[in-house]
Amino acid sequence: MNVRRFLYRWGRVARAGVGMAMGMLAYPIAWLGWFRPRDELAAAVGQLLLVGFYGASRSSPSARLLARQAQRGQVGAVFFVHQNVGSLAQVKGLLDLFRDGGTAPLLAIDHEGGIVQRLTDAHGMSRLPAARDVAASLSPDEAYALYARAGRELAALGFDINLGPVVDIDAPDNPAIGVFGRAYGTEPDRITAYAQAFLAGFSAAGILCAAKHFPGHGLAVSDSHEGAADISATWTEAELEPFARLIASPTAPPLMMMGHLRLDPVAPDGRPATISTPIVTGLLRRRLGYQGVVVTDDLDMKAVSDLMGRKEAVVQAIAAGCDLLMFKNLFGYDPLLPQRAVRWVRDAIARGELSEAQVMAAAQRVRALRSRARPSG
User: Fold this and answer.
1) C-beta separation of 54 from 358 below 8 A
2) Worst-scoring range by mean pLDDT, 140-154, 179-193, 194-208, 215-229?
3) What angle do CA 81, 276, 224 make, to 5 degrees?
């Protein structure tokens, strides 16, 4: 590991630790549920929150609080990142924690294959090749068998959602997708065939999948983890084709993940796709006819957090047409995030920036998704 990468990794660990320590000041209020709203709108906003946590065991205060909030209906879904994945026993302990009680959240994780696979053979999971390698070495039918087995393994452990497949065009120099082989190819037919195999394979095991990164991250020359990737000069209509074909197919993805991608010809205001009405509602919903759940990429990523705070991100993502709002909640940990979100939404409705009907419609789409998830236990 080079010095720069070492410093970057440990700098993130230090930031997360500091953020967690500061957030703990508000922890007792969040734990006891003081001042939390309990009306129908609050329940709807809770459905829209896909939240991460700090730690890799069920003894983590962050995980314990998040499980408590999910049981109260303040959070509808939880996602695991690599910081949350310890030993098999620890992963099982966390899953049991989140599934204890009457209201279990949807549980999500990245399980694409290649570099983006949080769970490994140490957790009883088969190693999945990167998408480019799958397309180079397997037929779509063989890929289906591979993904169906992976789906059974993921379901047996207790997850509901796989944040994949990647439906982007493969460009080897792309810093977020191409350099890691995360895309299946350059031709719409090829991308669609293997993405369908992924979706159908995991779906056969009851796992819900999120196609990503709409409207197409593949030709970007920058990484959306570091800022909004401006695809205005490189994006073409061809990047929509695999998404359009999947949406029109019998294996339409139940979730669609937006990328933090700036596309000025479609959204002249320069907002990333995640919080852009012309892209989410105009391009994805109206033009392509997508009716499933739209999930944001992590709204704590610099692409959004450098532009606005969480309050604005919540309001603008819902206004754009998104349904599940992803917050890692690791850097700048806020135990009161769920109840703050309710207040932010209520204030935005009062100002006319959102309508209650928008919020309720988004919550209904998430509830319909929940009804398709595997039964708990």
Assistant:
1) no
2) 215-229
3) 40
What's the helix, strand, coil split of the chain in %, to 5? 50, 10, 40
Residue among 297, 298, 300, 323 flagged as catalytic = 297
Across the range 20-44, mean pLDDT stands at: 88
Quote the CATH superfamily of domain 3-372: Glycoside hydrolase, family 3, N-terminal domain (3.20.20.300)
Cβ partners under 8 Å of residue 145, min gap 6 = 201
On whether the pTM is more than 0.85, the answer is yes
What value, to the nearest 5°, has the Cα angle with vertex 243 and ends 237 and 246? 140
Residue 14 has pLDDT above 60, yes or no: no
- Given a contact cutoff of 8 angstroms between Cβ atoms, the answer to whether 181 and 192 are in contact is no
Counting Cβ atoms within 10 Å, is residue 325 exposed (0-12), middle (13-18) or buried (19+)? buried
- Running DSSP on this structure, what letter comes out for residue 310? H
Among 100, 133, 225, 334, the one annotated catalytic: 225
Question: Looking at the predicted structure, is the pLDDT value of residue 8 above 50?
Answer: no
Q: Which amino acid is at 266?
A: V
CA distances from 121 to 118, 127, 150, 153 (A): 10, 6, 11, 11
Inform me whether the pLDDT recorded for 19 exceeds 70: no
In the annotation, is 123 catalytic? no
Residue ranges per domain, the chain?
3-372
Q: Is 362 left (phi over 0), alpha (psi -120 to 50) or beta?
A: alpha
Report how far residue 105's alpha carbon sits from residue 317's, in angstroms, rounded to the nearest whole number: 21
Angle at 228 between CA 222 and CA 232, to 5 degrees: 75
Confirm whether 334 is a catalytic residue: no
- Beta carbons of 322 and 280 less than 8 angstroms apart: yes
